[in-house]
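EI: anyone free to look at a 462-residue chain?
SC: sure, send it
EI:
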Amino acid sequence: MRTLLATLGVLCLVPCAVAARAADPPQATVEVEEDVYRYEPADNGAGPMWCRGSTSLVRVGDDVFASGLETLGDAKPLNNCRWTLHKRGPTGWELQQADPSGRTREPSPVATLPGGRVLVSVNPTLTGPEARAGPARPEILDFAARDPKAPPKCILPKWDGTPKFTEHSYRTFAADSRAATLILFQNIGYTHAEWTFRDAGAKWTAGRLKWPWGAEYDKPQPIRVCYPTVAVNGRAVYFCGVSDIVEPRAAWRQYKQKLTGRAWDYDFRRLFYAWTDDVTTGRFHEWVEIADRDKTCGWVTPWDLWVAPDGGVHLLWGERAIDTRLRERFYPDAKQSHALVHAIVRDGRVVRRRSLVLAREGGVQEIPGAARFQATPDGRLFVFFYVSGRAADGKQVSENRLLELGPDGTPSPASRVHLKHPLRSFFTATVRAGNSPSRTLDLLGERAGARHTISYTRIRIR
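SC: here you go
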């Protein structure tokens, strides 16, 4: 059922003969660096950056909105948080609203649609205050950007039947402003994701995306896919996420238990991609495996997805080659490496693949971290990313960088973005949430070295 494209000979691991010449390093001006809000850890397994496949930041004209996560001191985990909505105005950031009555576990991703609408995906629990876990109800809150302190309209998405949603939603929220469409995915256990799509006429279509099947595991099972980056273009939907199941290798699971004392551990090692040309048909193409670090207990993190005007689907993810704790016993000859990888997919086939940043054991240890695409109105594509570790001269590195990708994926040299406070994890005002392409790079995230603070940064790409 699965197709492992990482091994196909058609992939370009070095610049192809037809590749365009790499551009000059892009230049950027830092315009704003400021804090938005502080939070207290909820100790419930989530946090403000937990919905990393979606975003908590949108721009509507000259205004920027951010959803936040506030821990309720008198509530018990897991549902001990509430959503907040913040707006940046002439005098800085201001809290607009906070959930007056609900409780939830996870952050609330946002999107925007025409007419100055700010949409917030929420998942309030239906349990009492003493319950640790239980049923929840997905909702979409529709705020007017011109009056964000006014009560929002509550939209109840329509689903296929009555799915048993809980506080562990792993949901993903995406929108297409040009077509005025949106889609919401929400996981059900370890078997599938429920999805619901709304068109420009407010008509809902719903269905299920069943997980790929792991026939090769010690115990064959569905491979739950989490933290996906999702784009909706009209009725077409593109979905790319990482495996997230309890360690499927019995020998590794037992060894890890001795190290950690826990009977469980999750894998995050395989990157899967699915798409549909028309989601209203209810049919997705068969799952494709894009990357695989399963043989040496590595790590994969999906970072972003962008659909180019020519139909190419650009994917961005991070890879770690091995879990060094297991190396001596299970794969003693394996070498560690960290990579930021970019690929272009067409009709389910990877036609370009390249490591944009690569740190190898024994070499330079500039290790790539979080990364996002930034599309501009003239069709250009940039990558903003974080790097930490040690440079070739031995100096410690903690900085953000920017590079440009040519139409065929050829990268320019990267330039350092001179932030006073580098961002180690961040959201952008991504086109996947209905934002317009822009040379203004809006960022919301956590600074390197800072604790429990969510900050905003604005950068102008020159």
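EI: The radius of gyration is 21 Å.
SC: 👍
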